[in-house]
């Protein structure tokens, strides 16, 4: 009985690690989309490069913080 419980705990741990990996993957996709759209906006309106770039950096930092949080949770689990 005790071995069965330990197997369930280990299975739950591995599932949790997989889900945190999935969130890091999603964060990477979101960052790529954000940067692509920012570069597209800069291409359409080069005069606003400074404004768009600074907002892009803030957005990427917020998206990256999600990935860093998921990475920390991955190592804690």
From TrEMBL:
GO molecular function, one term: proton-transporting ATP synthase activity, rotational mechanism
Membrane topology: Multi-pass membrane protein
V-ATPase proteolipid subunit C-like domain mapped to chain residues: 18-77
Site, as annotated: Reversibly protonated during proton transport: 64
Protein name: ATP synthase subunit c
Chain's role: F(1)F(0) ATP synthase produces ATP from ADP in the presence of a proton or sodium gradient. F-type ATPases consist of two structural domains, F(1) containing the extramembraneous catalytic core and F(0) containing the membrane proton channel, linked together by a central stalk and a peripheral stalk. During catalysis, ATP synthesis in the catalytic domain of F(1) is coupled via a rotary mechanism of the central stalk subunits to proton translocation.
Annotated source species: Candidatus Zambryskibacteria bacterium CG10_big_fil_rev_8_21_14_0_10_42_12
Similarity comment text for this entry: Belongs to the ATPase C chain family.
């Amino acid at each position: 009985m005790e071995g069965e419980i330990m197997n369930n705990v280990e299975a739950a741990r591995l599932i949790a690690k997989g889900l945190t990996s999935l969130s890091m993957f999603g964060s990477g996709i979101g960052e790529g989309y954000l940067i692509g759209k920012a570069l597209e906006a800069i291409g359409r309106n080069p005069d606003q490069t400074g404004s768009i770039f600074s907002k892009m950096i803030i957005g990427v930092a917020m998206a990256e913080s999600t990935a860093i949080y998921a990475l920390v949770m991955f190592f804690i689990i």
